[in-house]
Amino acid sequence: MHYKKHHKKRNSFIPAFIILVLILLVMVECYLLFYQNQPDSSSQTNSSETSTMTESSPSNTQDIEQTKNFNQEVQPSSDFAEELNQKLEDIQFTGTALIIHNGQIILQKGFGYANVSESRPNTYDATFQIGSIQKAFTASLILKQVQARKLSLDDTLDQFYPTIPDSQKITIRQLLSMTSGLEQKVKPTILMTDDDFIQFSIANATMGLYGKYKYEGVNYSILVGILEQVTGQSYRTLFTQTFIQGLNLSHTCFYDDFIHSSNRTYAYKPASGKDFGTQINDNPLTFDQEVGTGNVGMTVGDLYLFYSDLFEGKIIDQQIMEEVWTPETETKYMGGLYNFATHIKGHGNEAGFESNAMFSKDRKNAVILLSNQYPKNDSHSKLADSIFDLLESDQSE
């Protein structure tokens, strides 16, 4: 009898114990859910300190919001914007224009055709080859290595390629400013890998006038080779990680992807009047020879995001930029850009595509024109200049 009573008490105790354990588990789960969603005071302090130390680095949310602003067409909504729109139409501009005035997008739209045979118009998100503007990206990658102390602007070329003529006196700074005196007159006649082309450029680099400015792409081909030596990574990997992924440039790609892109544009020979010239056929050999110097396709929005982050010190510290853009470089070419007293300009021209970009130094005003047909015996540089002058002179908000 005693055994049976004891057994009965034990049976009633077990369910009660299980219920108690379940209640405790629910309480612990609620506690964790509540406190995981509360901001940690120490984290807030650290975030505040980091924000102060790196003021120019925005949150991911801000980056995403900024990107969204460029993922839409912007038609003119003011008399001033309409005036600029009409100017582009009157000159029969073919391409996509992005115009920023007082920090606001006042125009972002396409003009003319991306593909005449399909009657497909240029749009705000049309992709164009940017040509030599890519050199600013390559320069930025070099300056990131300077910032990381893996390179110095005064390092000489013989540390990397001692067989190049006068390499012992040519510096990284001179390669960036194209004052090395180096030239490359022989070009490949067959398709090559990126690495093979860099080696070809190095083997065919010759010396012209040392210390004198001369626009020669071989300077930047050599910089690509130096980048790969210093980092142990390919140029494409560095470009993709730093810009496409790092800056959320979702409409940026290399030429071999560009030609298969659904929003790509086709280049046309210059023509007089409204008629389009003959379509320029895709030529992989041309762009194969532009490793780091002009084989990337972009939209106006992606290009603006790159320049904006560069000028705001989000890619490279301002201190490094000041070492590069000294008073001596004013009005001169440096790091893929032309540095003037009040503004900075970038320009590219490749196989029928032309790119123009202009920014005021306070970053309030900007013009980006990407075109797949430039004027006969001319370029759109004067057009970009005239629009930018109007932005700078207009005082309306």
SSE order and pairing:
Layout: H1 2-36, H2 41-53, H3 60-69, H4 79-90, E1 94-101, E2 104-111, E3 113-115, E4 120-121, E5 128-129, H5 134-147, H6 172-177, E6 182-183, H7 194-203, E7 206-207, H8 218-231, H9 235-245, E8 253-254, H10 255-258, H11 284-288, E9 296-298, H12 300-311, H13 318-324, E10 332-334, E11 337-339, E12 343-350, E13 353-360, E14 366-373, H14 381-393
Helix pairs in contact: 5-8, 7-8
Domain Beta-lactamase-related: 89-390
Transmembrane segments: 12-34
Keywords: Membrane, Transmembrane, Transmembrane helix
What's a quick, concise take on this entry?
Residues 41-61 have a biased composition (Low complexity). This protein has 397 residues and is of the alpha+beta class. The chain has helices spanning 2-36, 41-53, 60-69, 79-90, 134-147, 172-177, 194-203, 218-231, 235-245, 255-258, 284-288, 300-311, 318-324, 381-393, and strands at 94-101, 104-111, 113-115, 120-121, 128-129, 182-183, 206-207, 253-254, 296-298, 332-334, 337-339, 343-350, 353-360, 366-373.
